[in-house]
């Protein structure tokens, strides 16, 4: 369960799935590669039996030992803000959004073949005379 704290895994099922493939968690828990891991319900039973406070104390004690062994300083906290590119098709998202907007606004727009009651004004073209004649 401490490995779960270190890895940021809070759910027992997820922790046990991760332990199936994560050698570091297996090593930390004392399991060899060929050994079968316990069922996730075992972790729930242990947690319920020992209580949350005991796990907090164990975690705090472990962090203190890491500080004493100069493994961590206790001064700085680092966050992993790795940018992970998602496999997204922006074109299809835009198309779906545009289709949705068009569908929602269909009632508001009159069809092209129906008159709107407004007459289109014709614009007169102005002629520009750039060269004036001088007499």
Kindly describe this structure.
There is one protein chain. The protein is elongated and about 85 Å long. It has 6 helices and no strands. Helices cover 49% and strands 0% of the residues. α2 packs across α3 (23-29). The longest helix is centred in the middle third of the chain and has 17 residues, at 52-68. It has a domain at 2-68. The mean pLDDT is 76. The chain has 135 residues and is an all-alpha fold.
Keywords:
135 residues
Helices and strands in order, then pairings?
Elements: H1 2-7, H2 12-21, H3 23-29, H4 40-50, H5 52-68, H6 90-104
Task: Offer a quick outline of the entry.
With 135 residues, the chain is mainly alpha-helical. The chain is built from six helices and no strands.
Q: What number is the mean pLDDT?
A: 76
Q: What's the helix count?
A: 6
Helix percentage range: 40-55%
Shape: elongated
Strand-pairing-aware structural class: mainly alpha
| End-to-end gap | 101 Å
User: Would you identify the regions where 5 or more consecutive residues have pLDDT less than 50?
Assistant: none
- Beta strands, count: 0
% residues in beta strands: under 5%
